[in-house]
Backbone:
């Protein structure tokens, strides 16, 4: 994510009026942002980075699906290091089956849980051929029926491969959404549902990418870099450092 441009930040006196929708209630729920502040946040993200991209490398929907399956409990950088050579050899379900589980394990052994992931990749390759003509389906239910594919993986594939306005809630999105006041969700599904409801429709395709990148490079888990955050005047995080 590019370095924030502080010149785009609204004066605090203006932003303050639009910020919180309600104080923390008796049930202990945190304040949430008002709709105009939410729109402002995503417009700032869009101005800074109009075409955000996921950091997993792929060459087609199948390799994207495989990369996301491999990325569970692993870093994108670690997955990319393993898949660059893999995808040169096997970029279709047919080629992956020809490669075989044993060779696949060897090529991805630097990734955590590689044995189970290799098994799932071979199984999902078979299922794609048998049930979908070797193509990655543009359907949530069909995607989630594939071995190793859960809701988050399906959301990433639907979004990146097919341009659907889905919200893939990973650890960064979950943390940022709760921290800045977009959601009070206690589960990834609850956060996803909140984001689908509040994100401006025209921002839906890119929204989860902006939140991931913001969480990865600015709003970090241990020490958020609030001093260079382009939304620090809107954020409701009580622990922010500016």
Residues:
């Amino acid at each position: 994510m590019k370095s924030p441009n502080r010149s785009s930040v609204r004066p605090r006196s203006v932003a303050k009026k639009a910020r919180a929708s309600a104080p923390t209630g008796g049930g202990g729920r945190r304040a949430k942002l008002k709709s105009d502040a939410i729109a402002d946040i995503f417009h700032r993200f869009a101005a800074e980075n109009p075409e955000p991209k996921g950091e997993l490398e792929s060459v087609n929907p199948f390799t994207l699906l495989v990369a996301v399956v491999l990325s569970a409990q692993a870093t994108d950088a670690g997955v990319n290091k393993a898949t660059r050579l893999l995808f040169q050899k096997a970029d279709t379900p047919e080629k992956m089956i020809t490669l075989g589980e044993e060779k696949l394990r060897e090529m991805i052994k630097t990734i955590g849980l590689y044995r189970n992931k290799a098994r799932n990749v071979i199984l999902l390759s078979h299922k794609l051929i048998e049930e979908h003509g070797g193509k990655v389906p543009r359907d949530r239910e069909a995607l989630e029926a594939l071995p190793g594919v859960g809701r988050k993986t399906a959301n990433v594939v639907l979004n990146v491969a097919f341009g659907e306005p889905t919200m893939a809630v990973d650890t960064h999105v979950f943390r940022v959404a709760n921290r800045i006041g977009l959601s009070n969700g206690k589960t990834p599904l609850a956060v996803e549902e909140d984001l689908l409801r509040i994100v401006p429709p025209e921002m839906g395709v890119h929204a989860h990418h902006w939140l991931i990148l913001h969480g990865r490079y600015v709003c970090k888990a241990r020490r958020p870099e609030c001093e260079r955050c382009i939304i620090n005047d809107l954020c409701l995080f009580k622990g922010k450092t500016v």
Summary: DSSP finds twelve helices and no strands in the chain. Confidence is low (pLDDT under 50) at residues 1-18, 22-28. The domain at 61-162 is CATH 1.10.340.30 (Endonuclease III; domain 1).
